[in-house]
Each structure stands twice: as structure tokens, then as C-alpha cells.
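Self-study notes.
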Amino acid sequence: MLMFTDAVSELDRLTDRLFGTVARPPVMPMDAYRDGDQFVVHFDLPGVDPGSVDLTVEKDVLTVEAKREWQPGEGQQVIASERPQGKFRRQLFLGENLDTERIEAHYDKGVLTLRVPVAEQAKARKIEIGSAGAKAIEAFSKVA
């Protein structure tokens, strides 16, 4: 199971609710879903240099950090500057049923995709049911 948290965004959301202001969309929006024996997470990172993306796993916390910077060139006059700049960070808490040793990451067209497999010991498996009655019948037939 995946659990998501971003302390700064959560604090912003609580403040927005308290004061009735409009909540800002997350700087690193994401989608997450389960696909068979893996969890897939897509992060929108348009305009981010793939070399600035940093992924780390420490215990059960996966951290995604990225940086987007733009500075106007000499002689350029900025008319509007609405796109977020700077360093962005998002954390996912990974359950113990996920295999953090086999996480795959791919960055394409401004989307970072992570694939987190379910650990072997957490996968569903069929359990064979034995019958004490079958052993008793077999023992009885040997005696008779």
C-alpha cells in the first residue's frame, strides 16, 4: 500500500480551510494506482531537467525531489511569471508489503513514472487444504 504525504502542502491546505482561501494545486501533482502486482505512480514535472530529479528510499519513505529554474535573459522583460520555480519535493510512505529494492523509474515528456512491485511474501497465494478424514480412511484401509 502507498500512503502520500507532503507536510508543507498539508499545512497549506489546513490554513486555506481555516481562513477560507483558495487552495493551490500541488506543485508536483500525481496519479497512483495498482496494476496487478505493482503500484504505478505518475508525477507531472513539466519543464524539469531529468538530471535534476533525485529519488531516494530510506526505510519506508520514498522521496522525489526536482528542480525547475528559469531566469530571464539579458534584455528580456518579464510580463508574467506564474510557473513555479525552484526545488520541489514529495514523499510517499511505502508499506512493508512493497519491494523497495526493485523500484523502477522512467522520465518521459515531463512525466516521471515509478513502478513499485509488491513484495513476494505479500502476494496472494493459494493454500492447499488437507483433510484429516482422508488420512483416517487410508489408515483404516491398511488395517482391514
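Second protein, same conventions, sequence then structure:
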Amino acid sequence: MNPWDHDPALTEERLMEVGRLITVGRNHALDRYDPTVGCDAWTVGCEAFKFQCYQIETASYDLPWLEVLNSSMEFVFSIGGVGMRFYRGEPSDPHERALRQTFSELAQMSLFAEEELERSGETILYRFAVETDIDGSITQITFVVLSGSSPLIVWPVPLDQPVVGIAPIRPERSDGVVLPFPKVSPKKDEKDRKTED
């Protein structure tokens, strides 16, 4: 089942746009990474989270289907009225924080029919799972509909191109090239040039 089969508000274009916003935010954090001033994996993670939130919040001013419901550290946004969050990790194994339902999400109406909720016996959650490589770059973004901790829908967000950091995390430095000393002589004036001719 695709997300838009579950709910028409969750279109492919909208999910791809949010995936793009998350990518831009994380790439900004990677671009600022500088271990010579104390940056490490923790600082990249903090900046990536904040920059991703900023990208979504800024885009929400121009996109009528995108709304920020809670701009705190529990950052919650909605796509067409469907409340959701994002987390770093695998879509099939969300961590405990990703499974917490916020008040902003509780305020949103469930998209499943009551009989489906009774069958599952669990709360329905909507999440973007952001998987990263060891250097912090994004390897995959997946939209996930969870029933408790079990994925009901797992939809990999197509990324137009490979997502890599804008600047390398640990740039390699060359040894340089040894150049001969330059030839230096006094500047000739106009009178000296005429005598040489």
C-alpha cells in the first residue's frame, strides 16, 4: 500500500518535498562541520535536527498543505492535516523517542477507521525515518506509518540524486609542491629599457 492510498493528503509530491527539506537541512549541518573548532557527531546531529526543522518551518509559510504544529524540541508538523515527526534511524526499528506520541499529534484526527484501530490495538503514528552513513550523510529517507512499533506502510522517499555532504567531513590535505625560488631583479625604468634596444 502506498501512503496516498492510505490518505489522499499524503501524495508522492508532498512526501518527496518534505524529504528534500530534510535533506537540505542535514546537508547544511554537514557543510558547517569543522573538527578544528570542536565539531563532532553530536554537534552535527543537533544542528541537523534544528536545520531540518527550520527548512520545514520556512517552507510551511509558502506551502498551504504543510503546517508546523509544535516548533519545540518535539517538533511536529502536518501534511494536509496529518500530524507527523521525523527521526534518525531505521524505519523497521524506531527508537523509543520516535514512538512517543505528542499532544499535537493526539489533537489530529486518526485517518484509520475505528474498526481498523480496534484490530491493531495500537496507536497510529506517521514518521519520516532518516538513515545516515557513518559520516552523517543521508543514505535513505523513508515515510513510515506505524501501528505501535510495527510498520504498516514503509515507503522509501525517492531522492533525485545521491545525498552527500556539501563539504567533506574530513578533507584530505595535499603535501604541497616544492617550487624553485623566483628570480628577483630591480624594476627597470623607461630610460633603462631604451638603452637595451
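Instructor comment on the second fold: The first helix runs from residue 3 to 6.
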